[in-house]
Design brief:
Elements lengths: L1 H25 L6 E13 L2 E12 L5 E5 L4 E4 L3 H12 L10 E2 L7 E11 L2 E8 L10 H14 L2
Parallel strand pairs: 5-7
Antiparallel strand pairs: 1-2, 1-6, 2-3, 3-4, 6-7
């Protein structure tokens, strides 16, 4: 009698484990994504362009983020699942990776501006975008690029 009860209990536990595991097996694996984002504050002098400050944000495939300021130490930045999901969505679900990798340089008369570099690596390849503050560029920078940059700036500024 006790043996039948133990077998029935083991069967119920196995069935519950299967019900819990099945939904996670049906989900497609997430695409790998790593990001390197740099921000440099630049000033034009008589000798040319001088970098006043430089910062780097790296987000690894596992979602861990590291912030480094030129001449400073690295520090880890915790990212919430929501933040990581928002960035993943902007890059992987909006056609961002279909934008041709183009440079958006500063105009000749720009004096004080911020220069950005974004390197995104996915399973499908790697893209690098270089742009400057919108006021320092003579044309239009695609809003999706500046939007991703703004999201990453918010993480760096914490």
């Amino acid at each position: 009698m006790a043996r039948k009860f133990v077998l029935a209990l083991a069967g119920v536990v196995a069935a519950m484990a299967a019900l819990i595991a099945i939904p996670s097996l049906n989900q497609p694996p997430q695409e790998a994504l790593s990001i390197e984002y740099s921000r440099q504050n630049v000033t034009r002098t008589d000798q040319g362009l001088v970098t006043q400050s430089a910062e780097l944000l790296s987000i690894a495939q596992d979602g861990s983020a590291t912030y480094t300021q030129a001449g400073g130490q690295e520090r880890r930045i915790p990212l919430s699942g929501e933040e990581l999901g928002r960035i993943r969505g902007l890059i992987l679900e909006t056609g961002f990776m279909q934008i041709s990798a183009t440079n958006y340089p500063q105009s000749d008369n720009a004096t004080d501006f911020t220069k950005y570099t974004l390197r995104v690596s996915t399973d499908e390849g790697q893209k690098t975008f270089n742009w400057v503050s919108p006021g320092a560029h003579g044309g239009v920078i695609p809003p999706i690029i500046t939007n991703v940059g703004s999201q990453l700036d918010a993480i760096m500024d914490r």
